[in-house]
Specification:
Layout (H helix, E strand, L loop, with lengths): L2 H6 L2 E4 L7 E4 L1 H16 L9 E5 L2 H13 L2 E7 L7 E8 L2 E8 L5 E10 L3 H12 L2 E12 L5 H4 L3 E7 L1
Parallel strand pairs: 3-4, 3-7, 7-8, 8-9
Antiparallel strand pairs: 1-2, 4-6, 5-6
Helix pairs in contact: 2-3
Length: about 170
């Protein structure tokens, strides 16, 4: 993988979804280098100690599903409030442009998971997902992200198991 090649395929959309926010559109990267992206997102994780991949809505579904297939693991979605049938548990959180709630199906048996999403910005979505996992018998073994916007968060200092393909300081 050549990180510069990956970065060239990411489009920056200013003032989306809100004025002052620059959206990083990974669609062109996935269109041209999807297999390479998934391969890189799977690196540096001890897969022998993982039961499931947990993908955060919505691009985490795309990346996490592909990783689950590649690693022969099951897939669990984390969705926005009201998108999953009950019973669910939820967690409110703040993000760089508002507030939201994430939900997942109630899980009764302990399991080890890898959390997957496309971008860590301020970290609100990731922290809410980790809280959901802790409340729902899931032990987070690793966090795999395509992009970590380190200039917006200090999550590498809070969690030692974050793996990101691209880091922006």
């Amino acid at each position: 993988m050549n990180k510069q090649e990956f970065e060239k395929l990411i489009t920056h959309i200013p003032d989306f979804p809100k004025v002052g926010v620059t959206f990083m559109d990974v669609s062109p990267l996935l269109k041209h280098r999807f297999d390479d992206v998934i391969t890189d997102m799977c690196k540096n994780i001890d897969w022998s100690n993982v039961d499931y991949i947990l993908g955060i809505e919505s691009r985490g579904f795309i990346l996490g599903s592909a990783m689950a297939i590649k690693q022969n693991k099951g897939f669990i979605p984390v969705r926005k409030k009201g998108k999953l049938p009950p019973p669910t548990i939820g967690e409110d959180y703040s993000l760089e442009y508002g507030h939201d709630t994430l939900e997942m199906k109630i899980n009764k048996e302990s399991a080890k998971i890898v959390i997957v999403d496309d971008v860590i910005a301020t970290g609100g979505t990731l922290k809410a997902t980790i809280k959901l996992c802790e409340r729902n018998n899931f032990q987070v073994q690793a966090i795999s992200m395509l992009i970590n916007l380190r200039f917006l968060n200090q999550l590498d200092q809070e969690f030692d198991n974050i793996h990101s393909v691209l880091n922006f300081d």
